[in-house]
Design goal:
Structural class: mainly alpha
Helix content: over 70%
Oligomer: single chain
Order of helices and strands: HHHHHHH
Distance between the termini: 36 Å
Length: about 200
């Protein structure tokens, strides 16, 4: 095979998946928002662990009665089970982010959809633990005020019970809005930066 044959064979090769240098630079520009997502996720893991340890010691810190402490730890065990499941998922996502090498459009697409998927997983996790957080607060305030104001559950009137239920519903809605803002602020805006790179590549 002479030089002309080699050149013709080269020219006939499909070039669909070949990434041009300027495209490569553009694809790799998505590394910056990915680094910010990694950093935020790492910080959140740390703080969430701190809060979970703090919640574990609340009955000791505030001297809960043994019966109340048992009920607290019953709900806390369910809370921990939910956390372990979601933390495992989010940790695997964090590990994937650390091993990503953005060199092709395909890798950029996969990374973007992985980020979006785990943003929704994060929201689901937040909604899953919100009722537990509210129950912990209710239990805490009940334990505190039942001692100082001699309030008992049997003494609560129907109107007071309805007020508490409305406060719970309102609190869950507020937590939902806050969670949407939180995910958008710490992850959503960086996901949009990656999406912007993808859109720019489509236009070329």
């Amino acid at each position: 095979m002479d030089f002309n044959d080699i050149q013709n064979a080269w020219n006939n090769e499909k070039t669909e998946n070949v990434v041009l240098p300027d495209n490569l630079a553009k694809i790799q520009s998505a590394n910056m928002p990915l680094d910010k997502i990694r950093r935020n996720l790492g910080h959140e893991f740390l703080w969430q662990m701190v809060f979970i340890i703090f919640f574990a010691f609340i009955p000791f810190i505030y001297a809960f009665e043994p019966k109340i402490a048992k009920i607290y730890y019953l709900f806390f065990s369910i809370f921990i089970a939910v956390c372990i499941y979601y933390f495992a998922k989010l940790y695997l996502f964090y590990k994937r982010l650390n091993n990503i090498t953005l060199k092709t459009k395909d890798s950029l697409y996969e990374t973007y959809f992985d980020v979006r998927l785990n943003m929704e997983l994060y929201k689901t996790f937040g909604f899953a633990v919100t009722p537990f957080s509210i129950l912990f607060l209710i239990g805490f305030f009940y334990t505190k005020f039942s001692k100082t104001l001699a309030i008992q559950i049997v003494d609560v009137s129907d109107s007071e019970l309805i007020s508490v239920l409305l406060m719970i519903i309102f609190s869950i809605l507020v937590m939902g809005v806050f969670l949407e803002w939180w995910v958008h602020y710490f992850y959503g805006k960086y996901a949009r930066e990656i999406r912007k790179v993808i859109d720019e590549l489509k236009e070329e």
